[in-house]
Amino acid sequence: MNASPNTPSTPSEDEIATFLQDQSTWRGGPTELWREALDHTANDPVPVRKPGIMPQIRRVAPLAVAACIVLVAGTAIMMPSLGKARQSARQLRDQRIDSKWVPEDAPAADAITYQSASSSRLAGESADSESRVGFASGDAQSSKVDQAAAVRMVIRKATIELTTVDVRTAFSKAQLLLRPEVGEFAEGSTLTGEGPTARAQLTLRVAADRLSAVLTQLRDLGKVTQENSTGDDVTTQAVDLDARLRNERRVETELLQLLESRKDAPLKEILDLRENLSRIRGEIEQLQGRRDTLGRQVSLATILVIIQAEAKPPEPEKPAGASAFLTDAGKSFTSAFTNGAKTLVASLAFLAELAIAGAFWWTLLAIAAVMIRRRLINQPKVSIGLDPTPR
Amino acid sequence: MAPHAPSDPTTDEALFQRYRTGDRDAFALLASRYEQALLGLAIGILGRREPALDAVQDAWVRVIRSAHTFSGRSTLRTWVYRILINACKDARSRSSFTDVAGRGGHSPPADHEAAQQHDAASELHLALQSLDPDRRLLLLLCYHHNLTHPQAAEVLGIPLGTLKSRLNASLTDLRTRLRQEASR
User: Fold this and answer.
1) Separation CA A366–CA A353 (nearest Å)
2) Fewer Cβ atoms within 10 A, N terminus or C terminus of chain A?
3) Smallest Cα–Cα separation from B1: which of B38, B37, B50?
4) Can you give the pTM of this predicted structure?
């Protein structure tokens, strides 16, 4: 220490360091405290490290949290699809209850499946319901045919006229509504004119069960000026064709049996039989063709779409000056407020949906978060990331 | 009192592992490396000889009983020092006392210069004892010859930068108290 005898002064850095080192230096003699500790613990049971449940939870917790997040996200993403699927399944179930029958013993070649919809449903929103009815050959099923007649076969047609500002875009969008993979196609399409004189016309053939859905989508393409739909009931024709087909096939079978049993008959008779057989088969082919055409007409509905350019309304005279500015500002403000409110409501609805649908997973996440938080809080500061220090 | 020479092929962790498999000699070698340093720190924290001896023995008991919990996430040195610090805290909480003498190092001054040095050391000692316990512990750890600053930071469970800033604050506090002592 360099302080003068009478003047107190603070010690230097080195003096403090030396002092502090000196403070934590053992001046006593050699000791063997560890030996006493060993003797003291000699009779202790051999400690075995138990893994405990916390390390396992710590190992699994991140995976569990990740799985919860994935499940919640998956649920949120799939929810709309699940809703649609549920709705479709419900409709299908209702329709099956309405359906009369499907012949179990109908030969595969003869069983023709058609889409049909009751005329009462044609105009309604539930027109895209589906029922499958088989028409089979054989006398034994004549009673079933009577039942089948009760399920109407209807060729559906609809016409929709639209006006829109952008005819070309609406024309393209209308074509994109078709699903070629299920046999839908555009029977014809024309697009003429430009700008205010533009006009488009399409004839769409869509699956009968999608008629309502496609019409709904078409309505979104512009302003509907006219719309009508018709249904041509061809049940009688179908039943008649089926009856004639069955009859011709029966005759064909009889001729074949006759030909088989009269192998030793004169050649002229055999040739006559063959000629009759050939004629019968030709008629069967014709009837079958007509029946198939009828089936296709029933299964694919026809939509005539006419799109015309929308006549722009004459622009109202704008008031000049400050009043014009105030009017515009007011409109903009009102529009912004309305849009904002709509967005807010939609967001809240989405959040509510998400919260309710994922309630289970949110609960799990909350429990995991609380556990992690408690663990972090209870962890002693001195032991963060280190070995546990015994107390 | 270095824990072990660089040429020593046996590390602390290896010795400890050997002890865990039943080799008491390995523990003897390990403990003899540490015991003097631990006693020095304990007496620095507690200020008196007897409690320091008890605290170190208590620390060894804890080390032995908790040997199975050491998994090597920290070094053995910092683990043992943390155990000692906890043992010292427990000892201090069991009986509150102040250090007046008992270190056995304060003999009466022989001449004027020695007396002056003795006075200065006493002032430092008083200033150190008047510090907040956490600051005192930090100063003792940082100036303990068996520990580097990174090791002291690990013992306290704080980042090195935090340790340095706290060390600076503690030294400033110590000097302030020394000036106050000197001005009386």
Assistant:
1) 18
2) C
3) B37
4) 0.41
Beta strands A154-164; A300-309: pairing state: parallel
Query: Which residues of A, range 32-91, sit inside 8 Å of B by Cβ?
Result: 32-38, 40-41, 44, 47-49
Yes or no, beta carbons of B104 and A390 under 8 Å apart = no
**CA–CA min distance A55, chain B (Å):** 13
Burial of A381 from C-beta contacts in 10 A (0-12 / 13-18 / 19+): exposed
| Contact state of B73 with A386 under an 8 Å Cβ cutoff | yes
Record the tokens describing residue B14, joined without a space.
């290896």
Q: Is the pLDDT of residue A9 over 80?
A: no
Contact A21, B1 (CB under 8 A): no
pLDDT tens for residues A238-267? 999 999 999 999 999 998 888 888 878 888
What percent of chain A is helix, strand and coil (3-state, nearest 5)? 60, 15, 25
Q: Does the pLDDT at position A108 exceed 90?
A: no
Interface check for A381 against chain B (CB to CB < 8 A): the answer is: yes
CA–CA separation, A360 and A373 (whole Å): 20
The sign one gets for the Cα dihedral A119, A124, A126, A127 is positive
Beta-strand relationship, A223-233 and A199-207 = unpaired
Residues of chain A contacting B31 with CB distance shorter than 8 Å: 34-35
Dihedral sign from CA coordinates of A178, A180, A182, A188? positive
